[in-house]
Amino acid sequence: MTIDVPVELSPTGPVDATPSRRPGSVRRTTSIDMTWNAGFGSTLRLAGRGRDLLTPPAGDPEVLVEQSMDVTVSPERRILGLRLDDRWDDSGRSLDQMVGRRAMSGFRAALADLASEVIDSHEPVALLVDDIPGATLISGFAFSRWAPMVPLLEGARASGALRRMEGICTGFMPGSSGLAPDGTSRWTHRTRAVRLLTDDPDPWAWHRLPPEPAEASMRRIRRIDVWVADGAAQVDAMFQDSATTPDGGRDAVHEYSLTATADAVTGELTSVAPVPRVLPYAECPLAVRQVDRLLGVRLDDLRSVVLDRLSGVAGCTHLNDALRALADVPYLLARLGGGPVGGVPGLTTPGGAVTQDSSSRAVSGETGAVSMPTHPST
User: Fold this and answer.
1) φ/ψ bin of 299: left (φ > 0), alpha (ψ from -120 to 50), beta (otherwise)
2) Fewer CB within 10 Å, N- or C-terminus of the chain?
3) DSSP 142
4) d(Cα 129, Cα 149) in Å, to the nearest integer?
5) The pTM is what?
6) Three-state DSSP class for 119?
7) How far is CA 74 from CA 71, 99, 149, 303, in A?
8) How many CB atoms lie within 10 A of CB 220?
9) How many Å apart are CA 152 and CA 182, to the nearest integer?
10) What average pLDDT does the structure give for the chain?
């Protein structure tokens, strides 16, 4: 069976630059670096960092919050340790109860039961912790850049360690080119070489990241820009999963960008437009056809509603996580300042401190709208 994928849905290729910061905006960036203590089949470490940055209408940018996460995961994909930065020391007992839990299936439900205050905070660390299942899932791709995968896969298949993937997402719908006859995934990923987006002429474009590892590793990065124009919340976001390569480069296996708007009074999603950029299988981009199911949903309900309406072959696991991350947009808008309008904290009345005309120009070093001081050293 051949699945028809319209050519207009074909991935457009990776972004090659980060957009300039807008005056009167907040930018959230997060990263999770995935490394192993002794190579393939050993303990996985997830080192997360995140930051919220305010770019005011004029003047210097301000770091609103910068946070970190350190997680270890066993070869059986169970949590061995989960530590957040000092801001969350009071949650230590709750987080300790996550030790021994599965890092993938059931993780988010357990987190909601045991440490809901983390996710409910909507701080960068909430997005990092929510990304633990996805990061664990994709981490093993790193080794495909450093070693022949056929012997590893044959051994895993013989031991029954390969997971049956058929039906879990759009890319693995029945008949997908990404499925082997036994329902496990094929390693025929359509990867793309990518540049390091965090190397940017604007020293404030991204948070501080650790040095590039010289061994097999994965990195998941996210960026969410929010601002107000024409009385509505505006969002420009992206995420990318990439692996280091022996020649010092990076290969991406997943990348989406998306834009969205939300109503100022109700907080409901009024538009969302994901753009497939790098995806492993031909069928993956079909997931973008389903996102209109989310129109009219309040932003702060997206974490649960996305999983409801875009489950199984109706959704892409990684696009779903990018859509779920929009639940943090009201929190980010509130960091802009000004009085709330309707259901979206942070949207101001016309003439308010953070309302700006849709024609506002992006920040650049030449306009003088926002100064570009040197990034503080690590």
Assistant:
1) alpha
2) N
3) G
4) 29
5) 0.88
6) helix
7) 10, 10, 21, 27
8) 24
9) 17
10) 86
